[in-house]
Specification:
α5 crosses α6 and α6 packs across α8. The chain is elongated and about 55 Å long. It contains ten helices and no strands.
């Protein structure tokens, strides 16, 4: 089961999640094993996924993780620091998974670029698929605050680098153009899958990618 990068943000409730809405600390120490910092990362990722960043308070996170509030501030400095740490780790984990899955696809570079949407489809089909954490986080945050936007651009640069490696082979005359065209299809498919809950949107994106690669 692919759970990478998915347990993050979905606004399914209104108001703030309080400690009383989470499980007991004893329950969640078992649910989120490891040192206190690791439990905070896991609990925050899960709660942000289920309730959204803005709706999830620090009290709920520390209650779910079974830690003290001072532990969170010592480890991350603030809730914003925790958000950034979750994004950094989720992004790294997802990128490793995505890269490995694309590398494992059969065929040449063009075939991999088309069928990377089959890889995305497996992600979209997961029960805990909640969209891209970076897209969701940018949507929730102050648009004048560049911290989350810069983290998102850092993530996108790495993902686009992977796609561009294949595009250099598949369309050597315009690899950058192909990379950005495919990126638009990827982002569009992610958002469409989140809204519709239909993994099949990846099939349409794959078909569009195939047309891009045979248009020359």
């Amino acid at each position: 089961m692919i759970v990478l990068f998915t347990p993050f943000i979905r606004n399914t409730c209104e108001g703030t999640v309080t400690a009383t809405t989470a499980q007991t600390p004893a329950d969640n120490i078992a649910q989120y094993p490891g040192a206190a910092r690791e439990r905070l990362l896991l609990a925050a990722s899960d709660l942000f996924c289920r309730y959204g960043i803005n709706a999830t308070g620090v009290d709920a996170i520390v209650a779910a993780a079974g830690t003290a509030k001072t532990t969170l501030y010592k480890a991350f400095g603030s809730k914003e620091g925790l958000i950034e740490a979750v994004l950094e780790r989720e992004g790294s984990t997802w990128r490793d998974w995505f890269s490995d899955e694309v590398d494992a696809l059969p065929g040449d570079a063009a075939n991999k670029l088309v069928h990377l949407f089959d890889v995305l489809k497996t992600w979209f089909a997961e029960e805990n698929f909640y969209g891209c954490p970076f897209i969701n986080a940018v949507g929730e945050h102050d648009k004048e605050d560049d911290r989350i936007r810069l983290l998102t651009l850092k993530h996108k640069k790495i993902v686009l680098g992977k796609i561009n490696e294949l595009a250099q082979v598949a369309r050597p005359q315009d690899p950058d153009g192909l990379t950005h065209e495919l990126n638009l299809l990827i982002d569009g498919a992610i958002v469409a899958a989140l809204i519709t809950r239909d993994p099949g949107v990846a099939d349409h994106a794959r078909n569009a990618a195939a047309r891009l690669l045979t248009a020359e």
